[in-house]
Amino acid sequence: MVDIVKKETFDTPELSSNPSIPPIRVGSMDHSKPFVAKPDFQTSLGFPGELVDNWKDVALAKMEELLGKYRSLQVFMDSCVKCGNCTDRCHYFLGTADPKNMPVARQDLMRNVYRRYFTFAGKHFPKLVGAVDLTEEVIEDWYKYYHQCSECRRCSVYCPVGIDTAEVTMAGREILAAIGVGQKYSNEIIGKVFKIGNNLGLPEPALANTLEGLEEEVEEDIEIPVKFPLDQKGADVLLVTPSADFFAEPHVDGLIGYAKVFHQAGISWTLSSHASEAANFGLFIGNYDHMQKVASRVREAALELGVKRIVVGECGHAWRVAYSFWNTLIGPFDFLDPNYPSPQHICEVTHDLLQRGALKLDKSANDDKVVTFHDSCNVSRGSRMGNMPGGQFTIPRDLIRASCNHFVDMAPETIGEETFCCGGGGGLLTDDLLELRVKGALPRMNALNDVITDYNVTHMAAICAICKSQFSKVLPQYGMGMDMVISVHQLIGDALVFDTHH
Amino acid sequence: MIGIIFGILFYAATLLLVIGVGLRLRKYHKIPAPLVIPTTPAPITNRGVVGRLLREVVFFESLFKGNKWTWLFGYLFHFGMFFVLLRHFRYFTDPVWGWVASIQWLGIYASYAMIIGLLGLWARRFFVDRVKYISAPSDHLMLVLLIGIGLSGLSMKYIWHTDVVALKVYMRGLLTLQWQPLPTDPGLLLHLLLVLILMAIFPFSKLLHGPALAYTPTRNMKDTPREERHIAPWAERLDKD
After folding, report:
1. Cβ of residue B18 closer than 8 Å to a chain A Cβ
2. Angle at CA of residue A213, ends A209 and A215, nearest 5°
């Protein structure tokens, strides 16, 4: 039945302007799993170094604990009716055809165990309800397929009872970490944040150096002394941004854009070396404590620097954590200026300035571009911008329209709340999952290809560090240029008119 | 005699249903929902949340965003059943309430809708490879049970007529704790038996999805995390650090 073939290479899926739902191919991604975290990284996060002897008891105890801590998990385990509405909604299923990548099947990997040990029907009639014993094979499947979910929540949009597979994936990863099988990529990164302050492990001197370099570069470029302040006490705004913004392409052009906006608007701002990271991989591994601990660095930095506002740079999951969770995790923000939302997204800041006429943009600066916009999953379905629902869709688009003359949206069923994940979110942006990332990008690549064909789109703007990195990597696999992806604030920065009288 | 057996079963199934669902919902109620996780865009007022939940219940809004066949069959089934249930009030009310009398005709059509919907949903479990893959035996049986209830009910209208007047006397008797004879037509007994089974398994099965919807954090939470903190009792220790 299931062929387990270790694939060293893989074929990039064919693009299609009229993609159909693939027939299921059992086991087609059974070989895909990320590297397991080394014992050192496990233990430094308080998890067992390797698979514990009594893993079954520990796993079930952890599951019971989580069922009692998260109403979402308990309700989601009970209420799936197997209607199948989610089955063709996951980008990883659409790109791989592996049935275990259908959201309901992914949930069932845990639900079947839940039923066996925690429900009357599953204890007494396991075959009838599809309940299964917790075996090593099941754990294997969890490790594989809970790392083929980017926690993008697209399935939750279509579920008639609102089941969000992301919650199940997070619980799955939390249980795996608790028995000693954590994921290398995410856990190493969380370790770096605790030790150094950011995902990239960039220490303070290196960061200061990088920012100085940026100042010189920008001044050379536009002959205006745009500053990139670090650890400046008494600044009004603390900018917390994904560390990829400090030097990765195209991220850094976004950072330059934020700096130009602050400069032109006359807002005093600073970065912090203590909280030099907006990303929060605690979300990905489903661990509340780590998420809180990562986030608390932001509160500490804000208090230490005495800022009045906290602004978050372009990063999808970071914005979900910041917008939806920070107030709960590290609030209250009663020490900040109540005239501004806390935290505030950089797009909200720029949008607000534009509306007040505080910024002038010259759209013709971007006349060489036909731009489309990729809604990031966590921003779209896990957060908001502005003061009304859906602001997370209109505000970035307003910014793009204000900064360039040629903007076109991709197909409506691939944007907004129905947006497709880039394929690299949720802790999967690692080269050991490259096949998954390429295949998972298929739905977005199809939609992008359509607007390239129909409207000669040249650039896809994004507001997420993971999306930007992922697209830079997978666009070439589909025969498109890696530099197609740009930051929204690059468009802003390039179109910004500097008023020297300011 | 058979009337007494069914009567006892009815009381038992009703208790099981009410207490079972009540305990389950109490459990949901007691488990905290840490962190604000509505699927956004989400309402920012309580009124908005009520509206969102109502749209889910009345229109199956989220289901509609996906596969239209699933929505259509699901909708036919659920709302067919809803009107069939309303029609059944005539067996419990004396005199029959005016609006119950006036929807009797609708109830018949509704039963067709219910069965067509169920057959459509069942067909998906055979013919759509993805849905087939996720179906456990219980998923099939649940549909068989509901189809059986529908067909046995319709059989009394078209094939084996039952003594509706006597049935009503029996049902009124159950409501007032008096034993009355139950007509023993096979169609009726089968119908009642299947309904009893449905009531009994309701709290222990996926049928709970109805009441559980109200407890789904992705649908019942307000999108106001910047305005209000939302700390679960178990997370308070972290807040004090």
Report:
1. no
2. 120
